[in-house]
Design a protein that fits this description.
It contains six helices and 15 strands. It is an alpha/beta fold. It has a single domain, classed as Metallo-beta-lactamase, Chain A (4-Layer Sandwich), CATH 3.60.15.10. Strands 8-9-10-11-14-15 form a six-stranded mixed beta sheet. Strand 12 and strand 13 form a beta hairpin.
């Protein structure tokens, strides 16, 4: 679903065998997300955040409360999530803060909803940005690290142009070319396409 004031991609990852569901970057509009979950027949098990900017987490607290599920985020994103100035909510909307229930680390393998996801720490857009890689299906949820033909902005608190270039190169080098990339904004792409055409590569 494309949600919120800056058109953020909220992703729903459901295990077709047991209907257990992961919600990635719940941008805003909690009621619309709940309707979507109901339509899918999903059983929510966790919220995963790729980073702490307001447009990727505004609905996370409500979903946690409604479904009694944990929120996951990268360990070095704690300070940004808890600071309305740093997470940009203070400037773009009403001040908003969030604390995760589980802090993930580089290389960690998450076993959630009967699926395995690998955590890639990909600093640059924020210091605690990360990507989640669904290994068996070769799908990467890249947040605002990697877009189709671009990368995330690096003029925000804790951003780094050098870091995001290094993160981009790492993803392009380590993941198979057929990997489907599901970004935080705009359309999908593949690792192979970005290797050839992303100007930041």
């Amino acid at each position: 679903m494309v949600l919120g004031m800056v058109s953020t991609n909220t992703w729903f990852l459901m295990n077709e065998e047991n209907k257990e569901l992961l919600i990635i970057d719940p941008a805003d509009e909690t009621e619309r997300i709940q309707v979507k979950i109901s339509q899918m027949g999903g059983i929510p098990r966790a919220v995963l955040l790729t980073h702490g900017h307001f447009d990727h987490m505004m609905a996370a607290g409500d979903l946690r409360k409604t479904y009694h599920i944990p929120v996951y985020a990268y360990e070095s994103e704690k300070a940004l999530l808890e600071n309305p100035g740093a997470n940009l909510s203070g400037a773009w909307s009403s001040p908003h803060v969030l604390t995760a229930d589980q802090w993930v680390k580089e290389g960690e393998e998450l076993n959630l909803a009967g699926m395995k996801l690998q955590v890639f720490h990909t600093p640059g857009h924020t210091a605690g940005s990360c990507c989640y890689y669904l290994q068996e299906e070769k799908v990467l949820f890249s947040g605002d690290t990697l877009f189709a033909g671009s990368v995330g902005r690096t003029d925000f608190p804790t951003s780094s142009t050098r870091d995001i270039r290094e993160s981009l190169h790492r993803l392009l080098e380590e993941l198979p070319e057929e990997t489907r990339v599901c970004p935080g904004h705009n359309e999908e792409t593949t690792i192979g396409y970005e290797k050839r055409y992303n100007p930041f590569a």
